[in-house]
Amino acid sequence: MLAYPNIDPVALALGPLKIHWYGLMYLVGIGGAWLLASRRLARFDPTWTKEKLSDLVFWASMGVIVGGRLGYVLFYDLPAYIANPMLILEVWRGGMSFHGGFIGVMLAVLWFGRRNGKSFFELMDFIAPLVPIGLGAGRIGNFINAELWGKATDVPWAMIFPTDPAQLPRHPSQLYQFALEGVALFAVLWLYSRKPRPTMAISGMFALFYGIFRFIVEFVRVPDAQLGYLAWGWLTMGQVLCVPMIVAGVALIVWAYRREPAAPKGVVQ
């Protein structure tokens, strides 16, 4: 068994102001995405300035934060937030939904694309390889918060989390998600997007592989206490939300290659 490092969730305290590692992980994700997007900007559209890229990253980030929080409220714990709406503002405690953030990003990209003469999938293909940076950083934030841990196990790398009332050795499922949703997904998308691909194909790859990776990890991750398992003693809300992503990912890839076997001239994803 490995010892949990027990890192203080508060990275820096300045009087009443507390800066949490969880919040800093969002800054890491946003900053990392902006840096990599800057490197790919000329390939995406030589006419775009870094100021326009910054606008895209800003609005996409707002989609992540607002959509992620509202998604958690709607998908995972609506009664608690109806009883105490002020809890919605306590984002430093965690409680963000990837699927809600994903919807928020799609809405932000749709709005931004219409204002800047870009199609929805042009922009989604551009930003999809950047998203795993934020996903990986977010999972590290979950680990520092000692939340979203896995089922009890006797594997050699099991950990006892201080937030676990039972104090049982558990799968560090946050690290599994960091490895799959962060590192592996980034590698898949970054390598795949290095060559011209049909429009929608990169978006499809993101939806497909994220859905698969998340679905797998949910088997060893303890579901939210207020929801538990939805069916058959193993189906979680995370898995339910991933099924449409997997189906949509396959459909987008097939559709992309059938309608556009090669990337259009002048467009390099």
From TrEMBL:
Superkingdom, natural source: Bacteria
Subcellular location, record wording: Cell membrane
Keyword Cell membrane attributed: yes
Single Gene Ontology BP annotation: lipoprotein biosynthetic process
Pfam family, any one: LGT
Keyword flag Ribosomal protein: no
EC number: 2.5.1.145
Protein name: Phosphatidylglycerol--prolipoprotein diacylglyceryl transferase
Annotated function: Catalyzes the transfer of the diacylglyceryl group from phosphatidylglycerol to the sulfhydryl group of the N-terminal cysteine of a prolipoprotein, the first step in the formation of mature lipoproteins.
Pathway: Protein modification; lipoprotein biosynthesis (diacylglyceryl transfer)
Chief localization: membrane
Record-stated family: Belongs to the Lgt family.
Membrane topology: Multi-pass membrane protein
Molecular function GO labels: phosphatidylglycerol-prolipoprotein diacylglyceryl transferase activity
Positions annotated to bind a 1,2-diacyl-sn-glycero-3-phospho-(1'-sn-glycerol): 139
Record keywords, A-Z: Cell membrane, Membrane, Transferase, Transmembrane, Transmembrane helix
A GO cellular-component term linked to this record: plasma membrane
Transmembrane segment boundaries: 19-36, 56-76, 96-113, 120-140, 175-192, 199-217, 229-257
